[in-house]
Amino acid sequence: MELIPSIQTYDWGKCGDASKVAVLFKNIKPDFNIEPHKPYAELWMGTHVNGPSFVKHLEKSLYDIVTEQPSYLGNCVQDKFGNNLPYLLKVLSIQKALSIQVHPSKEHAEKLHAEQPKIYKDPNHKPE
């Protein structure tokens, strides 16, 4: 199945067609308009709620597809992660230096997200 990823436009990304993220996305979606002064920082492939992938020609998110057909993930993945992939594939196109990031464990991430969702927007760990 062909996927259409999501793009994140953080200010540290490369702008316009200097961004590999924008160029890759345009190769997938030829009608995509690359704006010359817009930063294209990350291309995501997965089931993340803030940047879901879509299945080409079906107009459905990958999350919806695996919810409808859990056998695509297999029993082990389904039992442990539900209808989400256990990873988020990212392609980065970096113009400015990034700050060091420390990611909590899954258990701690869930706790922080439950207590302060405006600050900790994601209940997932980031085993990178």
UniProtKB/TrEMBL annotation:
Which Gene3D superfamilies does this entry report, sorted A to Z?
Answer: Jelly Rolls
In this protein, which residues make up the domain named Phosphomannose isomerase type I catalytic?
2-128
| MF (Gene Ontology) | mannose-6-phosphate isomerase activity; zinc ion binding
> Which Pfam families does the protein's record reference?
PMI_typeI_cat
A Gene Ontology biological process in which this protein takes part is: GDP-mannose biosynthetic process
State the superkingdom: Eukaryota
GO terms for cellular component: cytosol
SUPFAM superfamilies named in the record = RmlC-like cupins (SSF51182)
Quote the protein name from its UniProt record: Phosphomannose isomerase type I catalytic domain-containing protein
Please tell me the species this chain comes from. Answer: Oryctes borbonicus
